[in-house]
Amino acid sequence: ALPARAANADAHSYAQPDVVRVSHIDLDLSADFDAKVLHGHADLHLEWQDRSARELRLDTRELTIEKVEVSRNGRRWREAGFGLADADAILGQQLSIAIERQQPKIVRVHYRTAPTASGLQWLDAVQTLGKAQPFMFSQSQAIHARSWVPLQDTPAVRFTYAAKLAVPPGLLALMSAENPQQPSEDGRYRFRMSQPIPSYLMAIAVGRLAFEAIGERAGVYAEPERLAASVHEFADTERMIGVAESLYGDYRWGRYDLLILPPSFPYGGMENPRLSFITPTVIAGDRSLVALIAHELAHSWSGNLVTNDNWNEFWLNEGFTSYVENRIIEALFGAERANMEFVLDTRGLADDFRSLPVSEDLQRLRPDISRLDPDAVYTTTAYTKGSWFLKYLERRVGRERLDAFLRSYFDHYAFKSIGTDTFLDYLQANLLADAGDAVPAAELQAWLNQPGIPEFAPVYEARAFAAIDAARAGFLSGDIGAAGLPGKDWNTHEWLYFLDGLPQEVDGERLAALDEAFTLTRTGNSEIAFAWFQIGIRNGYAVIRPQLERFLMEVGRRKFVVPLYRSLAARDADREWAKSVFDKARTGYHPITTGSVEEVFARAANR
Ligand SMILES: CC/C=C\C/C=C\C[C@@H](O)/C=C/C=C/C=C\[C@@H](O)CCCC(=O)O
Ligand SMILES: [Zn+2]
Asked: How many CA atoms lie within 13 A of 342 on its CB side?
């Protein structure tokens, strides 16, 4: 049972920021790749808000707490009593530390993580590209930092941190902090993040990594075998930083580097400050999927600088970021490309609304997920509906005024965590006050509180897509040979639009003809592969199976594998095969991915 909570508390954390706030964390950890654990201690520097409080509550999940000490000055330590509550399936375990006599300035928690820590993935060498050294990386968003550090795991609390890390010599250790660019000789590293961040932005990665600069403030870390391809793919990153700064103000984090993870990474990217974690599935060879880099970079303003203060407000992070992402793409590659990407995103949102077990509440920008696992209710609503709302504001008040407002908003709330009500107050006072009736209150409320997309949402089109609609109609109606197959000069986004618009049923002969002409089953573009596999699954196009199995064995990105397993599990002819693939693939998946796929098969069994 969840403890009684202060009115504005974060339902996904046992922390009590109204009682005490962690202002800084010093980590001193060793990475044991044989046992697949981190162990050592965390020093939490405290700022007491309630001088009468006699308890410190922290979030943990599967941590073994060995000892707790307290100190007033960081020199003299005294052991403290502590207790771990029963584990909650979503929140993990509350760690309660007894405070006797004077309230301490620092609490030192001696602990070790579990090999099954939900926020860490430990890969054996054979699971990496180079197959020479093991690899470990974290994913803390939304509530997984607690599985590798005992802390106040809520975005409402922001803290600086420093770390001492010991790893096997020869491996490079990185964090969401000031980073080395070469491995240390003895495997010992020191890190510092001197700007206050929320816990979900704590990050760590250790592996056989090399670095190459791709600009004045940007560089790429990757396994040596993947470095050249990564450097080529993300060559525009420095330009993206410059464009984003010209639109929304200075980049406040120093460096902006990219860490290319093994393909088991569960997300496209994770906006860990100073070091975005990136999936290798966006290395398409033609830079067609770099909107993801624009997205993670954009988080340097929305999400990392101005942060949602709980996970019901996720749209404050992701909606603003998706809007800024699209503006960066437009500035670099033109309005047509930006429109194509937004139109595809809106079609993806419509799919989510149609296909996911998405309750009506999850179609709202501000759902109430207080009693739910954030990973289990993850949809594109916050991203695409959120950015659509900002595009609506842009259309109503004009781009120049909206940009000026966003610059002011990011600056005013820099390094703070807020909720939507605070945003709305600032919007009213600084944009709508002199916008007349451009944004009626009823429309504002519809965007923020109603499910679905308002009928007054602005419509976006891409010029190239009209011709593709015609080509698709011809492909589906004519005899295949006569009309000739469309698509020989299409770019990634045009292909995605063509495939997305195909009906649920397409006869095998047409699929085979497309495959024959454009080798779609063997494409190296993960987005096209995903779209094509979905079409093949629902039409029983068995030719895809060997490549689909290879994809599911190699790639752990939830965006792809969860819907693919969902489609396979929905078909009697594919369910057992899919389970056999999952049984082989799961050891290579991140715990977050494994959990989601298990949920897919559990739902299918209960259908
Ligand atoms: C209604 C949902 C409310 C809150 C959910 C909060 C977090 C969900 C948790 O699963 C963490 C998500 C992290 C996402 C990280 C990167 C994304 O921006 C991109 C993911 C999609 C992709 O693979 O491209
Ligand atoms: Zn994001």
From this structure: 29
